[in-house]
Write a structure and sequence with these properties.
The chain is of the alpha+beta class. Helix 2 packs across helix 10 and helix 11 crosses helix 15. The termini are far apart. The protein has two domains: 378 residues, Purple Acid Phosphatase, chain A, domain 2; 201 residues, 5'-nucleotidase,  domain 2, CATH 3.90.780. The strands form ten sheets. Strands 9, 10, 12, 13, 14, 15, 16 and 17 form an eight-stranded mixed sheet that branches. It has 17 helices and 37 strands.
Length: 664
């Protein structure tokens, strides 16, 4: 006998499901089965082990290498599900090429989706960056009808062959999720009966997806008036009971968010920690570009976090994994299920969580799956041709190796382009603000966050589109905010959280706060200031001046930035969308490209890369403070005015530990 249910689902669609209640259809009490959940997350269009910004192969990342780990894990665990946690379609020039430059047609499939179809993914969710190219594009490439009047429903477009689930983004009109909120995957797994014999058992795995509710701020121009978000906990509490009623023996949450144990808010960016309280059996997380569990990592943000076991991979007792980013790792949760009391129950004491790196113990990397490069060959070559398009020349090296120490060789040109654009925009469209000075902020988006390959370096010589994409990594659009001098101070105090508090007179202190994201280290152009890292957070910005005079807390300024920051991204005090006066349609990267072209394409360092906005207040520390960057870059450091002590010590991964004298 079976008990069947009918539930109201998306847009009035009836969801039906049956769960066995007859003992004749159930495994014997005590039957066990091992199931491996395999996770990729934050691929960001790194299909191949190739850096389009440097036009060079790089084996330290790439889905083509994660594919090898996937095959190995499947061989080890025949009972498996391969799942993706979002931020898939944006992040490299390949993503821009297929979305903007040569938009993929309905009859074609995104390169990354072709690869994932080949790898036979079982399910995936949607990250925040999936929305960067707009809802029409996302609807087409996922072949999903969002039921929006201004977007034609796709009909048979190329798309992932696996279900995409996202529960907490809903259509503003019909109040239903724009994607299926969850999927129930029926699988037959090999198990072990109580007598030791092998048995085949049916297991229904429910998979539900979540994305950061803050997409409504970050991608406001793409989403406002069309969709809205719900908090992850409220959404989970709505759908997980339905999933259980439909027969889900195991509920797996794909949450594109990190772990934040602070008080819950329906709008919090990283709500995954709180999802463990909603009755799920396993949690796959992402967004933070980090590793969980990460045993033995002294600087891990997950150490000593409430309810978190960073060695075994449990959050409030729920097996949880975050498998790095860019395809550099595979997350693996091995669950042991036991049929007890008429249902499958996860045996935490017999389950295990780990991440597996594409980097071998000897420093080499696993081989790439050759089928992946064949599947993406045409798109790969098209992207290379696109990014080689010349736009100018430079007589200096624009890099971010020491950007966190004040070097602006790769930041100033971005700030100058943004400032000029906003000044012209205000003059043309907002003459009432014409007498208010315009400043600009930009961050060193690539400054080692993702390892030795994650730095900007534009060599002297020809400048092409790939170099502009290297200087400005994200497909943001230009926005500007109207603020006061007091807001400028608070803005810079937030950015100064990039640094640990340094005790004068103590030796060997780590300068950089590894838990603070480099893309939040805004460098402000148009003012001068110093950062005193001996002072506590919130009291570090001193000698803040504009045109040589101390800034009046009440003086008005316009700050050129991007849609992410202007709308509240990064939690900068008072910058929450309410002060935005410019919401331009142009991408920051395109503005940079046009700025270079408009100036004849010739960049010299004296004009475009030597105007340092800030410096450290001098502090005496015996032996200097610890700073990590690429090995062998002493000459660049010295040219940028960084005072080094001794020679850097190689770390064996392409980076080196530098000792920096803050007293000079």
């Amino acid at each position: 006998m079976k008990k069947c249910l009918a539930l109201a689902g998306l847009a009035g669609v009836v969801l039906s499901g049956c769960s066995s209640v007859s003992n004749n259809n159930q495994p014997a009490e005590g039957t066990t089965v091992n199931v491996a959940l395999l996770e990729t997350t934050d691929i960001h269009q790194n299909v191949l082990s190739y850096d389009y910004y440097k036009l060079a192969a790089n084996p330290s990342f790439g889905l083509e290498r994660a594919a090898t780990l996937i095959q190995q894990a499947r061989a080890q665990y025949p009972n498996n599900l391969l799942l993706d946690d979002g931020d898939l379609i944006q992040g490299t020039a390949l993503g821009d090429y297929q979305a903007v430059v040569n938009p993929v047609k309905c009859g074609d499939t995104l390169a990354v989706h072709k690869v994932m179809n080949y790898l036979k993914y079982d399910a995936g969710t949607i990250g925040n960056h999936e929305f960067n190219y707009g809802l029409p594009f996302l609807s087409q490439v996922t072949n999903t009808n969002f039921r929006l009047s201004n977007i034609q429903a796709p009909n048979g477009c190329g798309a992932p062959a696996y279900p995409l689930v996202l529960a907490n983004v809903a259509n503003l009109s019909d109040k239903q999720p724009i994607f299926k909120p969850y999927a129930i995957l029926s699988r037959t797994f090999a198990g072990t009966a109580p007598d030791g014999s092998s048995v085949q058992v049916p297991v229904k795995v429910g998979v539900i997806g979540f994305t950061p509710p803050t997409i409504m701020d970050w991608d406001k121009k793409n989403l406002q008036g069309q969709v809205y978000t719900n908090g992850v906990v409220e959404t989970a509490n709505t759908y997980i009971p339905k999933m259980r009623q439909e027969g889900a023996d195991l509920v797996v949450a794909l949450s594109h968010g990190g772990l934040d144990p602070s008080a819950y808010s329906p709008t919090m960016e990283n709500g995954s920690w709180h999802l463990t309280k909603t009755g799920i059996d396993a949690l796959l997380i992402g967004h933070s570009h980090d590793i969980f569990p990460n045993p033995g990592a002294a600087s891990s943000q997950f150490n000593n976090m409430q309810g978190v076991d960073n060695s075994k991979g449990f959050v409030n007792g729920v097996p949880t994994v975050m498998g790095g980013n860019w395809g550099n790792r595979l997350g693996v949760i091995k669950l042991t299920l036991k049929f007890t009391g008429g249902k499958w129950v996860v045996q935490n004491d017999k389950s295990a969580v780990e991440t597996r790196s594409i980097r071998n113990a000897d420093g080499s990397y696993v081989a790439a799956d050759p089928n992946v490069s064949q599947l993406a060959a045409a798109e790969h070559q098209g992207t290379i041709n696109y990014v080689k398009t010349p736009i100018g020349t430079t007589d200096f090296e624009m890099n971010t190796y020491f950007a966190l120490l004040g070097d602006v060789s790769a930041i100033q040109i971005v700030n100058m382009a943004q400032k000029a654009y906003v000044e012209n925009y205000v003059k043309t469209n907002l003459p009432q603000y014409a007498n208010i000075p315009v400043l600009s902020v930009s961050a060193p988006f690539k400054a080692g966050r993702n390892g030795a390959s994650d730095y900007t370096d534009v060599a002297p010589g020809a400048v092409a589109i790939n170099n502009a994409a290297d200087l400005y990594l994200y497909p943001n659009t230009v926005q500007a905010v109207l603020v006061k001098g007091s807001d400028i101070k608070n803005w810079l105090e937030r950015a100064a959280q990039m640094f640990n508090t340094i005790a004068p007179g103590a030796a060997g202190q780590e300068l950089i706060n590894s838990n603070f994201q480099v893309f939040n280290f805004d460098v402000m152009y148009g003012v001068k200031y110093q950062i005193d890292v001996s002072q506590p957070v919130g009291s570090r910005i001193v000698n803040l001046t504009y045109n040589g005079s101390a800034i009046d807390p009440n003086q008005q300024f316009i700050v050129a930035t991007n849609n992410y920051r202007a709308s509240g991204g990064g939690n900068f005090p008072g910058i929450d969308g309410t002060k935005t006066i410019v919401q331009a349609p142009d991408a920051n990267r395109d503005v940079l490209i046009q700025y270079i072209k408009d100036r004849g394409g010739k960049l010299d360092q004296a004009t475009y890369g030597a105007s340092r906005s800030w410096s450290f207040v001098k502090i005496s520390t015996p032996g200097g403070v610890v700073f990590k960057s690429i090995d062998g870059k002493q000459a660049i450091a010295q040219a940028a005015g960084v005072s080094l002590i001794g020679s850097p010590k190689p770390n064996g991964d392409g980076t080196a530990t530098y000792m920096v004298d803050l007293g000079q």
